[in-house]
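Lab meeting, item 3. Inverse folding demo.
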């Protein structure tokens, strides 16, 4: 799989209530600047930036979705994490369903 011309190293995801909750993509074969520029062109300026000697993290934060772009300074690898923000009602429903399930005897 690729995003633009950049091949993904890994793609992993988690689901919640039958839909994607978190998606994580990593890149190491593409220059971090080119990956960042693709996201910046699509989503505009970051809403938050953390820049340290170890990492550069750029976050886009909307009402229901958070997108985080990170560069590991040591390895030069790029990581993109998309998170769907669940509502309080969705979380309460999850806790009720979890409490109602039977414990596995194994």
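The presenter then showed the designed sequence:
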């Amino acid at each position: 799989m690729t995003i633009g011309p950049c091949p993904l190293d890994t793609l992993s995801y988690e689901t919640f209530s039958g839909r994607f909750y978190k998606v994580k993509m990593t890149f190491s074969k593409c220059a971090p600047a080119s990956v960042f520029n693709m996201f910046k062109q699509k989503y505009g300026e970051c809403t938050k930036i953390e820049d340290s000697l170890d990492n550069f993290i750029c976050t886009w934060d909307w009402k229901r979705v958070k997108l985080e772009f990170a560069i590991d300074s040591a390895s030069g690898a790029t990581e993109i994490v998309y998170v769907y923000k669940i509502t309080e009602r969705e979380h309460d429903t999850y806790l009720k369903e979890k409490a109602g399930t039977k414990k596995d005897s194994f």
